[in-house]
Amino acid sequence: MPQSLSCDAAHPLAVRGFGGKPCCLIASSGLRSRRCDKTSMMRTLLRQRLLRGAGRLNEPAKLEKLHMTGSNEWRHPTPDLYITERGSGSTTLIVIHGGPDWDHSYIEPYVTPLQDMCRVLSFDMRGCGRSGRAQSPEGYHVDYVVDDLVVLMDARGISHGVLLGFSFGGRVALRFLQRHPERVKALILASTTAYQDFQPELDAWEERRERYGACREKADRITASPTLSAAEKARALAFDCLPLDVYDLSHIEPIKTALSAVRFSGEWTKRWLGGHRISPDDVDYETVIKLSGVPCLIIHGAKDMRFPVAVAERLHRTLPHSRLVILEQTGHLAHMEAPERWLLPVREFIDGL
């Protein structure tokens, strides 16, 4: 059993988005950087591009709980996986949620408009949402999620796809790329990191220190509670740590309302709080991406208090064929704070593959 510490303490949320702030789009390979101001022209363009897929939004998605019969190399059988599948086409976008004790409902609505241009497949990780649980606590490790994804792709006839990994899901996507590069057409890293050495940058950020201090006291009480279940702890942490995930605090109350839609579990948190590592921390993912040669989109909130924006800028500088999108005045949950500005570069990236 591989042993490693999770890189992600983020708590993704489910919420209808807010937008309208300026963004900064940076592209390499000779394309000049440009800043998108808050103008009526840009808002109109964004809406037009997003709504290209809106004609089919009322069509029912394929909601299934797949009985997985494949095995994986770590001898932890793949449980039944709950998936949402929309659209069709030669390109498949596979969406990997974060948390990890969340389900995919907090991100799936934000990628739904892409169903007009590609097949969009989202799933609940093992131990999360409506997917099955691992047979033992040792089954909660990134490597087993990678194995599950291989089994899922085989079951759905997907030879290779575009991986979109959000937060903790980004670490799953990177590990998948390392182990199965031939099955990755392109990579989208959203609010995540390829690095481990970013804590000093967070500690030096005064505004973040203030928010973290207030949230840490609440988080300590929650995790130490002898009466709360693991799932109840995951839910409580999500609510009480929102100031670390959403930069504009005026959005907190609508987000809390939307959180009721998330089916929290607690299997991963329970494993992590028990002192067990759930993700490799000795992999040079920057080199993994370089050697793979796959196109890479990096999209990050300028005020992300989980992973500082500097990690996105650093990775972009090392990858000649990457694109970097920085969304100003948004935090870790950038796709919820600015859904139009977040989705437009994702659409452009997939359209250009």
Rg is 19 Å
Structural shape: globular
The low-confidence runs, each spanning 5 or more residues with pLDDT under 50, are 1-60, 69-75
Supply the number of helical segments. 14
Spatial strand arrangement across the major sheet:
2-1-10-9-8-7-5-6-4-3
Overall tally of structural domains: 1
CATH class: Alpha Beta
CATH architecture: 3-Layer(aba) Sandwich
Per the CATH scheme, the topology name is Rossmann fold
GO molecular function: peptidase activity
Family: Belongs to the peptidase S33 family.
Protein name: Alpha/beta hydrolase
GO biological process, one term: proteolysis
Tell me what the structure shows.
The chain has one domain: Rossmann fold. With 353 residues, the chain is α/β, with parallel strands linked by helices. Helices cover 37% and strands 15% of the residues. The model is unreliable at 1-60 and 69-75 (pLDDT under 50). A 10-stranded mixed beta sheet has the order 2-1-10-9-8-7-5-6-4-3, sandwiched between helices.
Entry keywords:
353 residues, alpha/beta, Rossmann fold, 10 strands, disordered N terminus, Peptidase_S33, AB_hydrolase_sf
Structure summary:
With 353 residues, the protein is of the alpha/beta class. It has helices at residues 40-50, 108-111, 142-155, 168-179, 199-203, 206-224, 230-240, 242-245, 252-258, 267-273, 285-292, 309-318, 334-337, 339-351, and strands at residues 23-27, 34-36, 62-66, 81-86, 92-96, 119-123, 161-166, 184-190, 296-301, 322-327. 37% of the residues lie in helices and 15% in strands.
